[in-house]
Design brief:
Blueprint: H1 22-36, E1 44-49, H2 55-69, H3 75-92, E2 103-110, E3 113-119, E4 129-133, H4 139-142, E5 150-156, E6 160-167, E7 170-178, H5 192-218, E8 223-230, H6 234-240, H7 246-251, E9 252-257, H8 263-272, H9 274-277, H10 281-297, E10 302-304, H11 306-314, E11 318-324, E12 330-335, E13 342-347, E14 365-371, H12 372-382, E15 386-390, H13 395-404, E16 407-411
Parallel strand pairs: 5-8, 8-9, 11-15
Antiparallel strand pairs: 1-2, 1-4, 2-3, 5-6, 6-7, 10-16, 11-16, 12-13, 12-14
Helix pairs in contact: 2-3
The structure holds zinc ion.
Length: 414
C-alpha cells in the first residue's frame, strides 16, 4: 500500500501534489484571459520561442513582419500590428539566451491599449511560431494543462460493474455494465456440480470483459492510481485474477468495501478513498467549504467579503484563505502624474478612465495592475495563512461564489 501523504507534498510515484499550485492556477488563469481576447482585425500577435532557439532570428523575423505590416489596408489594423510588433521587439531586446522553457509572448490592442503578455510556460515550448490573427494562438500552451490528479475508480461484483475517472474535482462515469451471470442458488433440474461449473465459466467471462474495458480506460498514462470497490470478496478475486492488464494492475492502490456496484458505489469509493490515497482534492475542498459555512452561519471563526478578509489578513487572523476560481477582479494602483500620490482600487475590469487625483485634480494614470486572487494569495502567504482556490464544479463551491462573493477566510482567532 502506498504511503499516505499530506497536502502540498508529494511522497511516492503514485501520489501527486494534492493542492493546486498557485503557479498552475496563475498559468490557467492567464490562458483563460488570453483566450477571451479578440482583435478588431487580424492584429493579435503570438510568438513562441523554444529553449536554445536563437532570439536574433526571431527579432529579424519581427522586423520583416513590421515591414510587411506597412501594406495592411486598414489604417487602424496597420497601426495596431505595428505597435504590437514594437512592443514585442522591445520585450526581446537584451535577451541573449532563451530561458530554459522558452518564451511565449502575446501582444495586441486589448481594450484600446497595446498590451504585452509574457507567459512563463510550465513545460518547454516545442515549436517556433509567429502568428498574427484575430485571436491569440494558444494551442501549444493549452496542451501543457492537464489535471494532475486522475484516479481510476471501479466497482465490480458478479452482477454489475462501473468504471469511472476522477479528474481532479470532476467525476466522470465512463461505463456501467450488467452481467448475465446466473445467481448461485438457483434451483433446477441440472446437476449442481455442472451448474456450478457453468456459473464459474460465465463469471470468468464477465470479469474478463470488465477487466478489458477497465484496462482500456486505466492504462492511460494520466491515471496515477486505481481503486477497486464492491461488496464482499469478489473485488479481491478480480484484482488478483488475470483480468486487468499488467499496466493497470500495477496502478491498483487497493480495494475498498462498498455497498453498491453502480454509480452510487463509485461515489462511495470517492468518499472512502482517504483510507488509501490521502485526502483527495475534491474532498478537501468540500471539507473546508463546509467548515466555512458552519463557522460563518454561527458567527464563529470565519469572515467573508473583500474588506473584512483584508482586515483579517492585516491582523494575521486568517488561518485559511478561501478564494473562488471564478473571482474575476483586479487590484489597480493608480498614480497622479502631477503630485505622485498613489491610491488602490479594486475593479471588475480595467476602465479606460481612472478618475482624478483627490488632491490636485489631475487625471490619474495606471501604475500597476494585479489579479485580485494573486494579490490576496501573496498577502495570505506572507502571513503564513494557507490559500485554497475553490472550484465552482461542486455545489458547495458554487454556493461559496454566489452567496459569499467568492472571498472568505477561516480564522485563527477573532
Ligand atoms: Zn495629484
Amino acid at each position: 500500500m502506498p504511503k499516505k501523504h499530506t497536502a502540498g507534498t508529494s511522497v511516492c510515484g503514485q501520489c501527486v501534489e494534492l493542492k493546486m499550485e498557485k503557479a498552475d492556477y496563475t498559468f490557467k488563469r492567464k490562458l483563460k484571459f488570453l483566450k477571451k481576447q479578440r482583435g478588431q482585425g487580424t492584429e493579435l500577435i503570438s510568438i513562441y520561442i523554444p529553449p536554445d532557439y536563437n532570439v536574433n532570428e526571431v527579432v529579424s523575423k519581427l522586423r520583416d513582419e513590421a515591414g510587411q505590416a506597412m501594406n495592411i489596408k486598414s489604417k487602424q489594423t496597420r497601426k495596431n500590428v505595428t505597435s504590437a510588433i514594437e512592443r514585442l521587439l522591445h520585450a526581446l531586446k537584451g535577451t541573449k539566451k532563451t530561458p530554459s522553457k522558452g518564451i511565449a509572448l502575446f501582444s495586441g490592442n486589448i481594450g484600446g491599449r497595446i498590451e504585452l503578455y509574457n507567459i512563463k510556460p510550465p513545460e518547454p515550448i516545442p515549436v517556433q511560431v509567429y502568428r498574427c490573427d484575430s485571436e491569440f494562438f494558444l494551442e501549444p500552451l493549452e496542451r501543457m494543462i492537464a489535471p494532475k490528479q486522475v484516479y481510476g475508480l471501479m466497482t465490480v461484483d458478479r452482477r454489475e460493474a462501473a468504471i469511472a475517472l476522477l479528474k481532479g474535482k470532476h467525476l466522470e462515469i465512463v461505463k456501467t455494465l450488467g452481467s448475465q451471470v446466473p445467481g448461485k442458488h438457483r434451483a433446477g433440474g441440472q446437476s449442481s456440480v455442472r451448474f456450478e461449473r457453468l456459473i464459474e465459466i460465465a463469471a470468468h467471462e464477465w470479469f474478463k470483459k470488465v477487466g478489458e474495458i477497465a484496462s482500456k480506460v486505466f492504462d492511460d498514462s494520466w491515471v496515477i492510481g486505481v481503486i477497486v470497490g464492491g461488496p464482499g470478496p469478489t473485488k479481491e478475486e478480480f484484482v488478483k485474477g488475470d483480468y486487468l492488464s499488467a499496466v493497470t494492475k500495477k496502478k491498483v492502490v487497493g480495494t475498498i468495501d462498498t455497498s453498491y456496484t453502480d454509480e452510487s458505489g463509485i461515489k462511495e469509493l470517492v468518499e472512502k478513498s482517504g483510507q488509501l490515497v490521502g485526502e483527495l482534492e475534491v474532498l478537501r475542498e468540500k471539507r473546508l467549504i463546509n467548515e466555512f459555512f458552519k463557522e460563518a452561519s454561527t458567527d464563529g471563526l470565519a469572515t467573508y467579503g473583500l474588506d473584512e478578509v483584508l482586515e483579517a489578513l492585516t491582523y494575521g487572523k486568517v488561518k485559511t484563505l478561501l478564494l473562488s476560481e471564478d473571482l474575476e477582479k483586479k487590484k489597480l494602483i493608480l498614480v497622479c502624474p502631477h503630485c505622485g500620490k498613489k491610491q488602490e482600487k479594486i475593479v471588475d475590469r480595467t476602465p479606460n478612465n481612472f478618475g482624478k487625483c483627490p488632491s490636485c485634480g489631475t487625471p490619474l494614470m495606471l501604475d500597476e495592475e494585479e489579479d485580485l486572487i494573486e494579490y490576496l494569495s501573496d498577502f495570505a502567504e506572507s502571513t503564513s495563512a494557507e490559500v485554497e482556490i475553490i472550484s465552482t464544479e461542486t455545489p458547495e463551491g458554487e454556493q461559496f461564489f454566489k452567496t459569499f462573493g467568492g472571498i472568505g477566510a477561516l480564522l485563527r482567532f477573532k
